[in-house]
Design brief:
Elements: H1 13-25, H2 32-42, H3 49-65, H4 70-89, H5 94-110
Helix pairs in contact: 1-5, 3-4
Amino acid sequence: MNLQKSERNFSTFIEYLEHEKTELLNIRKTIRVAGYEFMIQESQTDNNSIAREIYESNIKIILKLTDFNQKQAEQTFLILEGLTAMALTGILTTELIKNHFDYITNMARKI
């Protein structure tokens, strides 16, 4: 997740998801790779406050842009983070992105 994008930079949930999709499709060209490498190393020495900040920031963004409750926002974040891990390992396909983003947007519409 991108800590540099604060909640005020997104006007809609779709805009937020589009940003996430672009990042996933271009993962090797983003700063996320270095960010995850740094967080993995730092997790050995501190309380991983950067990761916690990223988590909390993205939950706030999701809560602000949707009518999700806390649990639904966390589930959405976990789906996006799972897709990020898949992108970093090279096994994420555009079909998986589409399927999971469709699931997330359908969940948002039902609320």
